[in-house]
C-alpha cells in the first residue's frame, strides 16, 4: 500500500441534522459523517473504506486512522490476506496503541475504516463484490480471517468450520434479494404529518416492517406508536428503538406501556455495555412477546459473546463499522449461529447499508440459510453519494454486482462535504 503523495484519510460530513434525519432520543442532531480511507497500491488499484460517525469528533477518528497507517503503508495486499488474522491482530494488538482500546472506542472505529478499505481492495483485485468473494472462499480461508482470541470458550475453529457448510441458495438471493425494514419513516425529530406521509408512501412501495424511535417522552411515544400502528395496520411489523435512553427498570416499565402496539423488539433499551441489564430486560419482556435487539454500539466479539451467553438479546445487530470490519463480523455471525439467535444488521448511518448488505448475504448463503425473524435495516439517506449505491426492490436488498465493498464515494461528493473546507460547510458556516 502506498500513500502516493495523496492524503488517504478524510473527514466527510453531511448536514443531516438540518432536517432531523437520523435523530433519536440520545442523538438529537446527528450529522451523518465518515472517516473515509483510500488505499493506493503500487499497481494503481484503490481500496475504499469508511467508518461511520455523527459529526463532531470525526477528526479524532481521522487522527486514529493516521496512527494506524504505518501498519498498512508499505505492505502488499497479498501479504495481508495471506495471513489476515495476523494482520487483524497487528492492528488491534499493537503494543502501544492497544492501550487506546483495546478493540473498542475511537481506535476500533479507525480499525474498521482501515480494514474495510483492505477488504474493498481485495474484492476489487478479485473482480467480485465482497459478498461473492466471501461466498467463494473455502471455509478454511474464511476461518483464517477470524481472530478467535477470547471466544474459544464458545466457538472453536473446528466448530466454525463445521458451521460453514458451503454455498446454499445463492440463486434465491439473486432473484428475491434479502428482506429489509425501514427506519426512515420515523426518526424522532419528524412531525406527525411527516410520519404519516412517509409510512403511507413506504407502504405503497412494498415496505412491511417499520422501526420507530422512542424514549424521549412516554406520552409522545404512545401517540407516535399509535399513529404508526394505525397507518401500517395490525399485520405489518413494528420495532421500537430507544438508543440507550433508560435505566433497566425504567426500560421495562416504559416498554410495557408500549406493548399494546405489539413491537417485535425494543432496541438498545439501556447502556450498550450493560449485558446483565439487557438480560433482565429480555427476561421481563419475554412474556409480552417483545425481544431485545442490540449491537450498533457493541464494539467487539467479546461483548457479543457475553450478550449471547447471558441470553441478553434476541436479535443480533452487527455493524460493519463498529466491529473490526469483516474479520470481526464473521466471528459474530458464527457465534450468533451457534446460539441460534437471528442476525438483523444495523444500517442507520451513511454508507452502512452499502456495506452491511454484503455481510448479511454471506450470512444467509453460507451460515444461517434462514430468513426466519431476519431482516436488514434500510435508511433512505445519502445513497446518491456512492458510486455503487444499494439497490432496493420491493423492500429487499438486491445483491450488489460491482467489484468491491460498495463504499467508494463520488469524488465530487467527497470534495463538497469534506469538513470544514468543502463548499457545503463553507456555505453553512457563512450563513
Ligand atoms: C444516530 C443514528 O441515526 C441512530 O439513531 C441509528 C440507529 O439507532 C438505528 O438505525 O438503529
Ligand atoms: Mg438503533
Automatic annotation (TrEMBL):
Keywords: Lyase, Magnesium, Metal-binding. It catalyses: L-fuconate = 2-dehydro-3-deoxy-L-fuconate + H2O. One of its GO terms (molecular function) is L-fuconate dehydratase activity. Residues 192-288 form the Mandelate racemase/muconate lactonizing enzyme C-terminal domain. SMART domains: MR_MLE. InterPro entries: Enolase-like_C_sf, Enolase-like_N, Enolase_C-like, L-fuconate_dehydratase, Mandel_Rmase/mucon_lact_enz_CS, Mandelate_racemase_C, Mandelate_racemase_N_dom, RHMD-like. Its EC number is 4.2.1.68. Coiled coil: none annotated. Belongs to the mandelate racemase/muconate lactonizing enzyme family. ENOSF1 subfamily. This is Mitochondrial enolase superfamily member 1. It comes from Echeneis naucrates.
Amino acid at each position: 500500500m502506498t500513500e502516493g503523495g495523496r492524503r488517504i484519510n478524510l473527514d466527510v460530513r453531511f448536514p443531516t441534522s438540518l432536517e432531523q434525519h437520523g435523530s433519536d432520543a440520545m442523538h438529537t442532531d446527528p450529522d451523518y459523517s465518515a472517516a473515509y480511507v483510500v488505499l493506493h497500491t503500487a499497481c494503481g488499484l484503490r481500496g475504499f473504506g469508511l467508518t461511520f460517525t455523527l459529526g463532531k469528533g470525526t477528526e479524532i477518528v481521522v487522527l486514529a486512522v493516521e496512527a494506524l497507517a504505518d501498519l498498512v503503508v508499505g505492505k502488499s495486499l497479498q501479504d495481508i490476506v495471506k495471513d489476515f488474522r495476523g494482520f487483524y491482530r497487528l492492528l488491534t494488538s499493537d503494543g502501544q496503541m492497544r492501550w487506546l482500546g483495546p478493540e473498542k472506542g475511537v481506535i476500533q472505529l479507525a480499525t474498521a475504516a482501515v480494514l474495510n478499505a483492505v477488504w474493498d481492495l481485495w474484492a476489487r483485485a478479485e473482480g467480485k463484490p465482497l459478498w461473492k468473494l466471501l461466498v467463494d472462499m473455502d471455509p478454511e480461508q474464511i476461518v483464517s480471517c477470524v481472530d478467535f482470541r477470547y471466544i474459544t470458550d464458545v466457538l472453536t475453529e473446528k466448530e466454525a468450520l463445521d458451521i460453514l457448510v458451503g454455498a446454499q441458495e445463492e440463486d434465491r438471493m439473486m432473484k428475491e434479494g434479502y428482506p429489509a425494514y425501514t427506519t426512515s419513516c420515523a426518526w424522532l425529530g419528524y412531525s406527525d404529518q411527516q410520519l404519516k406521509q412517509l409510512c403511507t408512501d413506504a407502504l405503497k412501495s412494498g415496505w412491511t416492517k417499520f422501526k420507530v424511535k422512542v424514549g424521549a417522552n412516554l406520552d409522545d411515544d404512545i401517540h407516535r406508536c399509535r399513529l404508526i400502528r394505525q397507518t401500517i395496520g395490525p399485520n405489518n411489523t413494528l420495532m421500537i428503538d430507544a438508543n440507550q435512553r433508560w435505566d433497566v427498570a425504567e426500560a421495562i416499565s416504559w416498554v410495557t406501556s408500549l406493548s399494546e402496539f405489539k413491537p417485535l423488539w425494543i432496541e438498545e433499551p439501556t447502556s450498550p455495555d450493560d449485558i446483565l441489564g439487557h438480560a433482565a430486560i429480555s427476561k421481563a419482556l419475554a412474556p409480552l412477546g417483545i425481544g431485545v435487539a442490540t449491537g450498533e454500539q457493541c464494539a467487539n466479539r467479546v461483548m457479543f459473546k457475553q450478550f449471547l451467553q447471558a441470553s441478553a438479546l434476541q436479535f443480533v445487530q452487527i455493524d460493519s463499522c463498529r466491529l473490526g470490519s469483516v474479520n470481526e463480523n464473521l466471528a459474530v455471525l458464527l457465534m450468533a449461529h451457534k446460539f441460534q439467535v437471528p442476525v438483523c444488521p444495523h444500517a442507520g448511518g451513511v454508507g452502512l447499508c452499502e456495506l452491511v448488505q454484503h455481510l448479511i448475504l454471506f450470512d444467509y448463503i453460507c451460515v444461517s440459510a434462514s430468513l426466519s425473524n431476519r431482516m436488514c435495516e434500510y435508511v433512505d439517506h445519502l445513497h446518491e453519494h456512492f458510486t455503487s449505491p444499494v439497490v432496493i426492490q420491493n423492500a429487499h436488498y438486491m445483491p450488489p454486482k460491482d467489484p468491491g465493498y460498495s463504499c467508494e464515494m463520488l469524488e465530487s461528493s467527497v470534495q463538497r462535504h469534506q469538513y470544514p473546507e468543502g463548499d457545503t460547510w463553507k456555505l453553512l458556516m457563512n450563513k
